[in-house]
Amino acid sequence: MDASYHPESDETTFLEPRQASLYRGLIGSANWVITLGRFDIRYATNTLARYGMAPREGHFTAIQRVFGYLKSHPKFQILIDPQPHPSQMLPTAKHDWTEFIPMPPKKSLPTLPHP
After folding, report:
1. Which residues pair with 14 in a beta bridge?
2. What is the full DSSP assignment across 42-90?
3. Helix (H/G/I), strand (E/B), else coil: 99
4. Are 59 and 23 in contact (CB under 8 A)?
């Protein structure tokens, strides 16, 4: 999505019912593309999905830009490495959390049965 575009301040005319239906279809298709692995369009799609009940021409142009981006970058991937980087690993020493969260005293209540 264009960095200077703010869909919440869009004041273009509302779409006709037929175009609004097409807009909602494009949003649904973009959600499927996200499900299939193209997480890079998630923000733009979710932002534009908020205007599904009353989309404007600017919103329609923005979702067309998202599909133009997908067309121009067909093989783009976000790679996720399951192995943590050594700088991101936590120390292995065990911490004693009782200084922050003291243990409650072990008392049994007289009205409750013994477990």
Report:
1. 56
2. HHHHHHHHTTSSS-BHHHHHHHHHHHHHHHH-TT------SSPPGGGPP
3. helix
4. yes
Cα–Cα nearest to 19, from 51, 66, 46 = 51
Place of tokens 């013994």: 114
Q: Which is nearest to 1 in space by CA: 37, 35, 49, 36?
A: 49
CB 31 within 8 A of CB 45: yes
Q: What's the half-sphere exposure (Cβ side, CA atoms, 13 Å) at 13? A: 4
Tokens of 43: 């923000």
Which pair of structure tokens corresponds to residue 68? 């133009």
Q: What are φ and ψ of residue 22, in 5° steps?
A: -65, -40
**pTM of the predicted protein model:** 0.67
Residue pLDDT, tens place only, 54-68: 999 999 999 999 999
